[in-house]
Amino acid sequence: MVDLGEQKVKTAGRVAALQAKLRQENFDGLLVCYFANRRYLSGYSASDMLPHETSGFLLITSQEAFLITSPLYEEQAQQEAPGFEVVTFGKGISFAKRIAELIVGRGLKRVGFEANAIIFDTYLGLVRALEDKAELVPCRGLVEAFRLIKEAEEIATLRRAISINDQVFNEIEPLIEPGVTEKQLAWEIERRMRDYQGEALAFETIVAGGPNGAKPHATPGERPFEPGEAVVIDMGTRYQGYNSDMTRTVCVGAPTPKFKEIYNIVLEAQLKTIEAIRPGLTGDEADTIARDLITSYGYGEAFSHSLGHGIGLAVHELPGLRKGNKETLEPNMVHSIEPGIYLSGWGGVRIEDLVLVTTDGYELLSAANKRGFWS
Q1: Left, alpha or beta for 132 (phi > 0: left; psi -120 to 50: alpha)?
Q2: How many domains is the chain partitioned into structurally?
Q3: Which of these, 350, 353, 308, lies nearest to 212 by C-alpha position?
Q4: 20-77 pLDDT, tens digit each
Q5: Domain span including residue 48
Q6: What residues contact residue 83 under an 8 Å CB cut-off, 6+ apart?
Q7: Pairing of strands 317-321, 334-337
Q8: Which of 4, 36, 204, 230 is most buried, judged by most C-beta within 10 A?
Q9: Which of the 8 DSSP states describes residue 121?
């Protein structure tokens, strides 16, 4: 049960920090369109699967904070966002017109909106409703900048989400046997996540056996596992809005020499990178550590994605651990470390853990079974 008094204090501090930033950027207000930013600022937990007009936007001005949503979610919004004035649309007043009324009625002239999180039709509706009485300015990253560094409560919630992943994986690993299908294993994972208080999947579970493992984002199908092949399992649960993300690769039965070779290379790359995590390390430098090691074994072209990403209210958050990213890690950031090798016709190996950046290094948060084959 969320303490609404504590919730109001927490979100009020976040809103105040954003208002100060808006003044620096010469914005009269900001339309918050992205579901994770909306929940971070308000506590309102409407599903990210709902359309904008149903789940709603926030409008943050220099002095006020509004939550504009469907009447279907009015009571939920009032309960979960005690620091916000809840405004609904309907009865002849559209979503766009209601927002325009708030903007014009408060004399706002320059209003930012999250350009990477708004449907184009919704944007056009807002422009028409404003009738040139205010300017809508596209912006990115204003709220995300605050979400980079996790508060103590956020880290505690992430730990719980991660512990659900760990427990579920350790339970389902013995079920990976010849004849079991990808879909059957995915269902076992998802059912157990719910049993352990996961409120939703963080993303669609990936279970990819044999050649399907060469596709980093494969969809589970009816294909049964066969002896000696690799099974890539990428799984995550959402707990109180925060997400976990973990990948393990398991061999069906006794590991083959090929499986041992590829698995050990990926594991070595992951462990070496994790050991290097510390404040001041850039996303590019972290990616390079893993990529150079995999390349040294001749599989550089088979590592086809970036090393990792931040995680929190969204599964993929900034900063990315990728080539070219010069942003540095800071204490209380949480990232995935997930190198992989993918070979067409054979399959793939990916190993992923979540890591907390500490003041002088790192803390490994994921604890599910992970073993190498060094014989």
Answers
A1: left
A2: 2
A3: 350
A4: 999 999 999 999 999 999 999 999 998 877 666 678 999 999 999 999 999 999 999 9
A5: 4-147
A6: 7, 8, 11, 12, 15, 42, 65
A7: unpaired
A8: 230
A9: H
